[in-house]
Amino acid sequence: MYGHAGKILRVNLTDSKISTINTEDYAEWIGGHGLGAAVWFDLVKDKTITSGFDPGNVLAIMPGLFSGTLVPASCRTQMLGVQVYSWPCEWFGRSNAGGRFANMLKWAGYDGLIIEGVAEKPTWINIVDDDVRLNDAGSLWGMDTHTAQRAIFKDVLGSDAHGNWVKTKGNRLTTQRPAVLTIGPAGENGSRLAVVLTEHGNAFGNGGYGGIWGAKNLKAISVLGTGGVPVADPQALLEARLWAQKHYATDYDDPKIWPPLGITISHFGGYANANWPIDPRSKPAGCTGCHINCQPRTSTGVANEAVCGDAGFYKAWEKKAHGSATDISAQAVDLTQRLGINSKGFQNWLLYLTILYDKGVLGPGKEIDTTLPVDKIGEAEFIEDFLYRIAYRKEIGNDLAEGFPRAAQKWGRLEEDLKTGILPMHSWGYSIHYDGRCEAYWWYASMIESRDVNMHDFNIAAYRIGQEISSGKKPLVPAEQIADWFGKLEPYHDPEMMNFATDNLYSAHMARTTAWLLHYSYFWKHSCGLCSTAFSDLVNPNGPGNRGLTPEGELKFYQAVTGRKLTFEASMEIGRKIFNLDKAIWTLQGRHRDMEQFPEYMYSLPSIGNPSATVGQPQPYYMPTKINGVWDYRNVAGRHLDRDKFEQWKTRFYELEGWDARTGWQTRSLLKSLGMQKVMDELARHRKLN
Amino acid sequence: MSQLPLSKAYLLVDPKKCAGCGSCMLACSLAHEGESNLSLSRIQVFSDAFGRYPTDVAIHFCRQCENPLCYLACPLPDEALCISQETGVRFIDGKNCTGCYQCVEACPYTPSRIIFRTDNNIALKCDLCLNTPYWQAAGKQACVETCPMKALKYTVKKPAGPDDYIVNLRGEGWAKLRFPTD
Prior knowledge:
The structure holds 2 protein chains of 2 kinds.
Chain A: E1 7-12, E2 18-22, H1 32-43, E3 59-63, E4 77-82, E5 92-97, H2 101-107, E6 112-116, E7 123-128, E8 131-136, H3 145-157, E9 166-167, E10 173-174, E11 179-182, H4 185-188, E12 196-198, E13 202-204, H5 209-215, E14 218-224, E15 229-230, H6 234-248, H7 259-262, E16 283-285, E17 295-297, H8 308-311, H9 315-322, H10 327-339, H11 346-358, E18 362-363, E19 368-369, H12 380-391, H13 396-400, H14 404-410, H15 414-420, H16 440-448, H17 457-466, H18 479-488, H19 508-525, H20 552-562, H21 568-589, H22 601-604, E20 622-627, E21 630-635, H23 643-657, H24 668-673, H25 677-685
Parallel strand pairs in A: 1-6, 7-14, 18-19
Antiparallel strand pairs in A: 1-2, 3-4, 3-6, 4-5, 7-8, 9-10, 11-12, 11-14, 12-13, 16-17, 20-21
Helix pairs in contact in A: 1-21, 6-20, 10-12, 16-19, 19-21, 19-23
Chain B: E1 10-13, H1 23-33, E2 35-36, E3 44-47, E4 57-60, H2 69-73, E5 81-83, E6 90-92, H3 102-106, E7 115-117, E8 122-124, H4 142-146, E9 152-155, H5 172-176
């Protein structure tokens, strides 16, 4: 099986049993997420499991099909299992990280790693090719994520520095350090905000998987792989890589600077952003095999690898407090990395705390009684205190470690704050990221899934291009051209998928937009391991006519790695099948149509046009729209969703997916057509099949 | 002993521009051995995620030495460890390598620039892509072509001294992106 290592490693922490599963038995599930979800479905006896902390929860840690090969931006690992962050239900979920781990695990000979049970005492897993051991993590417990990794480097190699060739027990040579996943104090203390981190700042951020590791007494997993992954056609793979780089990637000696696309999200031509670190002397660094290398390496080493919102979550607060962002913001990021805390959404969550403080609800002797120095927000004193309280569950930190929706619920504020929108969450307790009142599919897909969908594919093609108007520029690609490109894309051939006019928000077209995003992501990103920073590539200023390499590029890579020809339509159908496996698990966990509802403010408060905030200064939110037959980018800020019409959209989406419109459950005919007999039987046994 | 011919081909590197992604290693082993495998790459990159720019990355590669100790240590010179008559590049003919390990130990650099395949006891070294069974692209080097940062450069001019293999390849494009060029 080209592209595969051939087996999946299975480690039971309860009885220390180590075994393997043949990957070939799950060949139809491709790799990564598909493979992991299929194994999870088989291993978890009671799939009605409603808590990620349940000892029966199984975690699948899965490199993609392309991981370990020369396919660009393919070093991603998916972590699957019942998450603990999502609110009010702990749904089966996914989280994703870069770094070196995916490749190292494949090179050690494994297409995935399954973690079962709970260890009796703190444990770390040491994998060096075929040699797999469960080690006592007593001396690592309590360490921050960086110190723990260095200690493991030393344990595995005899030194924490790179040096000479090292011979493994299997008589193989390497100069490389192992790749280590680890948790910090936040994970050890069972926080729902805890990440599993690797390297300096790559993390499985969403889902609270770090807290689950803590509950399992699992401190770290180290893997050193010295092998390779067989590919069908090395020559074709090298040629495909060079073709993609030549025609679509940024030429670092002659880059095209295009501000909206200059940040490295979801297009193959992105480049590293010197603005992310607060350090004029940083440089790009990257995950194994990447062609973009978006992660900064700084001159101080502080906040290495922090990108996007995570890199700057404290900058605005600092600017507000004393006029500029300084090393305090970088140190704040670094501290989240070391303590193992997910800072995604912190900008919003901090705003929420300040609003409660200003209202006189939160503070010393107040309704929410805390000594947290909110008046010092923007200063080092506040952020250090805030992060340590969360990591060690001290005082108000004990509430916040549960995540903001649960904290608000405990404080008796949830209903009111979701009505006024000051608690800025969208689906399943996740912080607002892009505004679904303007960019509907983002919220729709998040609701249909179990987390913030966090897939920027259309966000570039629609929002980022349109936003050029705000700075007085002509958009890179006209709205009509974007629509035309979508009109040519499999499987829907529907230009109206890009029409964000109000009268199209609840249409069958927008159902297709949502389905395309999910099916594409489940196959190419979650299962093949492609990074969402580079794929899909629909609009790309380096490409011919500004068109990106999707779907031609993905198909070239697939054929070179596997030796099999695949149509894009077929890949989308497999993505649909993998997505439907997750859907079946959610249904078994208790998901029903009636639960798929947005918070109240989304139906009543107009968008202020800020993609990731609910309060503040209004601003325009340009999106492609077709009004009276004319395509253009138009400002769609100022609107809110219509509850009844959203219900109509749900019906359209369910029907498109082949689900029952009344319950939102899958139908027998759908699962038959997808060849999912086992899943069908399980749902039928639970009487959750229409 | 008569003077050995100088190599007419060299690799130059810029560690300050290198992103540590290891794409060069993946391409090198793929072109030569048919699979991406860091242990079989003739170029070895150390990238320290906990490091500080500009000392976070080190690139270890064959210098095509004027006085190649690997060649001199080989018990089968010109059969196993050879010098290309055309380019002067020092390379290993795997068919004749006995796996004696002497070239690995003779290399004066750490880590040794001679790679060793333990599964079939054959030494490997950078041949500047003279012989790439899995990549037909005459005159090109897989690492140089694949490096997305353009941090590697092929040259026919012999670097004057050991320090001259390390060069500054950060030009206007790099500055345009506001990364340091000094």
